[in-house]
């Protein structure tokens, strides 16, 4: 954890030196009506959709966070592009959870949910992500 104290300042320096690195801070809340413990400790990823717009490039993970006991999370991350305006990072939230489907009480498999970020704002602004329930599939 000690190293993390240095990583964030380094990101900030890169941001100043290289204006093409774009950082986001997004927070939101998830809830699981079918099992009230399954909104806790859920892995939340801040993803960057096809930053190069090339078909062979997979989406990039910019940052991860875990939800607290209320299902709240704040995830931060930076996306770099190659300096072309059409390559601006296109962030969205990707959630990996075990919230059971409606009418069930357990979920054996991991389930996934994508939450769009329609209006991404750069740090220092904070993006408020819509609250979602995890039991319903996309
Ligand atoms: C989670 O977010 C809600 C709504 O913003 C807030 O009322 C609640 O206090 C938060 N819980 C924690 C543990 O921060």
What does it look like?
Belongs to the nematode transthyretin-like family. It is found in: Secreted. It holds the Pfam family TTR-52. InterPro entries: Transthyretin-like, Transthyretin-like_sf. By secondary structure, the protein is mostly beta strands. The protein has one domain: Immunoglobulin-like, CATH 2.60.40.3330. 10% of the residues lie in helices and 36% in strands. Strands 1, 4, 7 and 8 form a 4-stranded mixed sheet that branches. A 4-stranded antiparallel sheet has the order 3-2-5-6, with no helix packed on it. The structure holds 2-acetamido-2-deoxy-beta-D-glucopyranose.
Highlighted features:
138 residues, mainly beta, Immunoglobulin-like, four-stranded antiparallel β-sheet, 10% helix, Transthyretin-like_sf, secreted, Transthyretin-like, signal
């Amino acid at each position: 954890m000690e190293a993390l104290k240095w990583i964030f300042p380094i990101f900030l320096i890169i941001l100043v030196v290289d204006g093409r690195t774009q950082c986001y801070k997004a927070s939101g809340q998830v809830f699981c009506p079918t099992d009230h413990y399954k909104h806790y400790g859920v892995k939340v990823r801040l993803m960057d959709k096809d930053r190069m717009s090339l078909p062979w490039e997979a989406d990039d993970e910019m940052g991860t966070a875990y939800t607290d006991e209320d299902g709240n999370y704040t995830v931060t991350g930076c996306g770099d592009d190659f300096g072309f305006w059409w390559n601006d990072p296109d962030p969205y939230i990707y959630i990996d959870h075990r919230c059971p489907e409606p009418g069930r009480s357990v979920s054996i498999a991991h389930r996934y949910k994508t939450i769009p970020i329609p209006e991404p704002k750069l740090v220092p602004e904070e993006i408020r992500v819509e609250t979602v329930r995890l039991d319903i599939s996309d």
